[in-house]
Amino acid sequence: MGHLAVRDLYEQLGEKMDSLWVRVPQNKALMTVLKKLYTEEEAEIIVKMPYSFADVHRIAKCTGCDPARAERVIESMADKGLVIDIHANGRYYYMPSPMIIGLFEFTMMRVNDDLDFKTVSKYLHDYMMGDDLFFFSNFHSDSQVSLMRTMPHEEALSDQAYTEILDYEKASALVKEQDYCGIGVCSCRHKTHHLKKKECDHPLELCLSFSVGARYAVRHGLAREASHGEILDLLAQSVERGLVLNSDNVQRRPRFICQCCACCCTMLNGISTYGYPNTLVTSSCIAEVDDDACLGCGKCADACPINAISLAPVKGQGKKKKKPIIDEDICLGCGVCALSCKPGALKLEKRKQRVIHPETTFERVILQTLDKGTAQFQLFDDPTKITHRAMRGILGGFLRMPAVKRALLSEALQSRFLSAVKVGATAMGKGWLMKV
């Protein structure tokens, strides 16, 4: 394997990560994080391996390593969350971890590790939360596809809304259909714990993973296997804790549920601190107030994790001095406000405007990378082939044209675009990706 100049190696690593599912703008904090987490050997393999999932033999061919060495280094990185894997067709396939959901979460889910968590936490925080660069790069006003979607607390739903929303939006139904579950450390709370910024008393072990996501995390020591009963117990406790449920932005085979709080959650802070509502996709519900039942106590405004509820003065001589006003432009439809309302004046109702969530992870990744301008790297993923490099250049230029992107992401053309990509993926031997 030919060696890259050390000075440029980590910059190339940053550029490689920027070409995945999430944009990764480069700055000094990022370079510090990468140098702390990746050895030079690991960084060089990441730079040279395919952008999408590949088995060890293909990785060895791309990197110039012998297969045994490639497997050793790749498995070591998977143990550290720097590479993600999927088992299919009797073998493991690997790809570099995106920044989220990936490097950030899996790094901070590591336990019993000699990693300098205090330093890594500082620079991860500086990178993602020091300013709005990361959020602007991924969740600006034109962004249409996010990684995560909010799930409504079922206890907060009105009777009518409960019957109208689909099972994939109900956490209890989602858990019951899983064949394998895991529980791990919440990356956001772990980070704020090391920064001495954790304001809540919520436990660290609240990250729920499922199916291939859980198998990956458990196999590499990033989570422990859990029963359906334990998962459902934690979700029941989240009602008492007033935590926001955020899941993979897919309808079928989701891989995780986060139980988020306003003080620690990176994604919630993307909305409340920096004002990027596209950080999370809303549920198909929205909070509504029964003015007659409302006491004007303001507990709902205090409970809202993204400051979507304000209190307005009430004219008149009654005891009620204020009433809650819901900012419908940013309300997530999580139901945390309703859980705090003792008289039951707040409930979640079905939104009038339809909320569309991608059907599968494969579809979400294709749409997300199209949205971010990196779909060409998923479709032509070999960094060593001249033909792939040429096609990335041609296709990337075409897909980045605003009119083209808008058309392909529109309801009118989206399904046809996805169908064409699926046909191409199957022809390239990657049809299995649509089934995981």
Automatic annotation (TrEMBL):
Designated name of the protein: 4Fe-4S dicluster domain-containing protein
Cross-referenced Gene3D superfamilies: 3.30.70.20
Taxonomic path: Bacteria, Pseudomonadati, Thermodesulfobacteriota, Desulfobacteria, Desulfobacterales
Species of provenance: Desulfatibacillum alkenivorans DSM 16219
Keyword set, alphabetical order: Iron, Iron-sulfur, Metal-binding
Superkingdom to which the source organism belongs: Bacteria
Alphabetical list of Pfam families matching this protein: Fer4_7
Keyword Iron: yes
GO MF annotation terms: iron-sulfur cluster binding; metal ion binding
UniProt domain 4Fe-4S ferredoxin-type: residue ranges: 285-314, 322-351
